[in-house]
Amino acid sequence: MLITPGKLLSEINSPDDVKKLDQTQLVQLCEELRQFIIDNVSVYGGHFGASLGVVELTVALHYVFNTPYDQLVWDVGHQAYGHKVLTGRRDNFHTNRLYGGLSGFPKRKESEFDTFGVGHSSTSISAALGMAMASRYLKIEDKQHIAVIGDGALTGGMAFEGLNHAGVSDTNILIILNDNCMAIDPNVGALKDYLTDITTSKTYNKLKDEAWNLLGKLSVFGKSAQEIVSKVESGIKAALLSQSNLFESLNLRYFGPVDGHDVNHLVTVLSDLRNIKGPKILHCVTVKGKGYGPSEKGNATTWHAPGTFDKITGEIHKKIPNTPQAPKYQDVFGHTLVELAKANDKIIGITPAMPSGSSMNIMMKEMPERAIDVGIAEQHAVTFSAGLSTQGLIPFCNIYSTFMQRAYDQVIHDVCIQNLPINFCLDRAGFAGADGPTHHGAYDIAYFRCLPNMIVSAPMNESELRNLMYTAQLPRTEQAFSIRYPRGQGVLANWRTPMEEIKIGSGRKLKGGGELAILTLGHVGNYAVEVCQRLAKQGIEIGHYDMRFVKPLDAEMLHEIFSEYKKIITVEDGCVQGGFGSAIVEFMADNNYQAEVKRLGIPDRIVEHGEQSELHKECGFDAEGIEKAAVEMLESVSRI
Ligand SMILES: Cc1ncc(C[n+]2csc(CCOP(=O)(O)OP(=O)(O)O)c2C)c(N)n1
Fold first, then answer.
1. Alpha-carbon gap, residue 181 to 160, rounded angstroms
2. How far is the CA of 410 from the centre of ligand 1 (A)?
3. Which of 73, 337, 489, 509 has the smallest C-beta neighbourhood within 10 Å, fewest atoms?
4. Residues 386, 388, 390, CA angle at the centre, nearest 5°?
5. pLDDT tens across 433-474, in order?
6. Cα 48 to middle of ligand 1, angstroms
7. What is the pTM of this model?
8. CA distance 17 to 205
9. Which residues are paired to 423 by β-bridges?
10. Catalytic residue, candidates 56, 378, 462, 614
11. How far from 296 is each of 58, 303, 461, CA to CA, in Å?
């Protein structure tokens, strides 16, 4: 279904068309853009509140700056829907996040206006600074480089690394801080308090007003802006001695706070800032979900990515689950952690800015002193957990597989080398779905199984997740324990099973017989169960083993398997290079077995976005794909 844009928006095919508008029309364009986003997301789903919050900023940026010559970098990119619509993708926007459709994030190969591919947070300052440095090196003086970063993304360490560098860079970079006090959940930490202080401080705002009065003259003075700015700055600096400004201390010119919903004021301010050379930051205060009643006044976390909804009533449509009643893995994690923590007072939960996404919020609500949100700071989350562990506590550090990539050195240097008994729960392992390649949890099996002092496991269902978590919290003096599970539902309606210890490194034989065995790791084992049933109906028996651990492997079970079978299929929702299947092949080689092994999993290429089931199918490891591979292998004459 094509969504009809408003009258002005229907004429906007590129930012050049935005520039053709009279400034007095921008308010209406904002209204139409906002409505278009509401209309689309209510029908097709996707991120919502963040894009509504930057409608005015988006319009003002494309009105003032010469994009794509001027480089505009969005941090995370979940807020860039308005940008996509204004930059030639309006008529395709209904395919946003769908298989084969537009990406939900800026992506270089999708548009020249998407200057930098994003999805993970806190990269925009570094990327824009790199671009700005390149321009300086190439002696291009008129190009602007703009990073738009949220207050949540600013809590990520990399953003500070970028600020630290930008402050001494003498480049033409403008950092726009989009401050709405929210990450996905309410933003946390001292920086958030600081930003609130600076936004509400009377002294500061008095100063700021004086500064803006002076700055207001910039537009009139045009190129002599520099002079006025230095006057403003000396005034501010003197006064700031009594109230320091974090950004000014880092040698960035700080402007604001300004109302991020006043498009005309934004146009004036941005036009002025365009004439001021050097690294600078504009602090915009916005409201997440702005302009749509339910999201503006309701729960911003719910409206971050609400799924489809009735735009008139604001009622969010309930998803019809594949397996009735089976809970999401994340909820099993959340409830089980509370259950375990009630019985074991050493357990602490840690999440880097994903309380709702990981369901750590269940523990935060029930045991607020035992669960900690550290902000978008995966590296810190890991080393902080390591610190807790040295004092005898039992951290359950829950990080999405894709975001754990950020903390790899911390896992090696702070956890594995010191052999600390930390527990990592890797949510969204495997294909993430509509978020696409920046969010697929494709690599964790490969990147964890090569680390000494690391146990790597994956449950096939909710009951196994509970048992693995139970096992992980039993007294242990060494070795990190990682448990990976996918986005979405498990398979058991009756999931609150009594918990029992699983022997570390033990697999489960689900079915024997036949000439071929399927070895699976994790939830994808359920596809193999289906395949065994389908083939049994055709009178074909095959074996199926749920290995549970990729490290340590169940050597005893593998000796049995390789003695019995000469045809083996491995299945994993992870990269085939270096993953679970590779571990099985290594075992085979190390023990001088010979068998035909077909490894199914995520191939060595970037897999785009789509439903998880669509991507499993594309990569040949849904039930049909596994069945096809099994039949082909069974029909082929064994070369062994
Ligand atoms: C490294 C990393 N960790 C976690 C996330 C998940 N995530 C996506 S958006 C978001 C909140 C971003 O907050 P902010 O930058 O303030 O933008 P807002 O949504 O408030 O506009 C988080 C935590 C991510 N994208 N990248």
1. 18
2. 21
3. 509
4. 70
5. 999 999 999 999 999 999 999 999 999 999 999 999 999 999
6. 13
7. 0.94
8. 36
9. 396, 481
10. 378
11. 18, 9, 38
